[in-house]
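Hey, can you fold this one?
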Amino acid sequence: MSKRSKQPAVPFQKVTRATTARRAGLSSASSSSGGSVAVSQPSPTRPSRISARLSPAPMVTNDDLIQALTAFTQAAANDRVLQQQKHDDLLQALRTQQDENTALRNLVTAGRAVVNRPSTAVVDSIPKFEGRMDEDVQGFINHIDRVATSEDWTDAHRLQVGIRRLVKTALLWHVQTGHTHADWASWSVALVTNFSRRLSFADWNRLIQDRVQQPNESGMEYALDKFRLCRLSPTPLAEQDAIPFLINGLAKWEHVAAMTAAAPANIPAFIARIQQLEQLGVSARSDVAPNRQMNIPPPQPPDLAAAFNNFSEKLVAELATKLESLTVSRSVGRGRGGPPGAARPPMECWLCHNTGHKARYCPTRPENTSAGR
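Sure. Predicted structure:
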């Protein structure tokens, strides 16, 4: 091994017997000199080392430890009391704030009336209004009024629900014009005015004939929807007059025969009767012909002649009134004196003053008399 490797990396790192003996000698010498530091002479084979001996620290007694522990315990107790006091102050402040919020809420609640908001399920039960020709706008408004009365809605809620149930053409009308009406009364009147269309008799009759009971449609649904079309009649139609049109659109011939045999007097009676027939469980096939071998008479069509005659008479009376108002007075004078487009008076002969021929062909003219001989 090299000489350098034998030297310790740090002074006083290795303690040998010689070092221990030397330290013992130094300690005895230093005790007489009052704890002075002795420096050994360097050796030619190893570096010099400094040996020092410090005076020992004073011993800690049990009384000192007891006093220290007592002081620490007292400080911890004081700190705990201070934290508890802060916690109590914060809790009291929170309670005071909560009481103030409750009092403010009570004042706000007492200053205004509690209003029920429209339920989403109730709003969805109201049919939507598109603005089609076959829709009853007055029935739409009446439906909202009935629901609002039962749900204790305000006029503001009625207006809100009415706008929410508009779609397509009706919604476009509200965006462009209807939003100018701020209250329910004016808005509903404007809606009825803009979408109340008087159908002609031909258009209304086509709607009635096309509306028949669907395969999966109940009798009550069919009756209510078709009676809605009956209310669109150009001439006011009573419930009793609408019964034949409802019977004519039933899908099953058994129901038609039963309704024709005992025609209901009004719409509620018709609905009760059709529900009773459906609960009896008659044949579900609508194309089954009656059994001729059992001598079951075929169902007779509903008496539509009387209803049609009533409508025809009213329609003829209305047309006669319109024709009288549109009749153009015929001109009595000849030439350009009459109004444009007016009918010319009959031709008059200036010889015999009779109508129907000209003077050239008058039988009283001498030339015509000689030619006839």
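The longest strand covers residues 38-39. Let me know if you want another pass with a different chain boundary.
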